[in-house]
């Protein structure tokens, strides 16, 4: 893939903006109240059982 000067410049510009952004913690989920801050729903399985569980070594090879 051939990169142009403008695409490299744009990538560096966007990377710089994201690194310069400030972030603040808006919610703190820890301790005994961890699960009380989530809303759970008793609904039918939307995947109809079509979930594939893989071993960690397969998902993220080292």
From TrEMBL:
Keyword Signal: yes
Phylogenetic placement of the source organism: Eukaryota, Fungi, Dikarya, Basidiomycota, Agaricomycotina
Domain of life: Eukaryota
Organism per entry: Hericium alpestre
Keywords: Signal
Signal peptide start and end residues: 1-20
Protein name: Uncharacterized protein
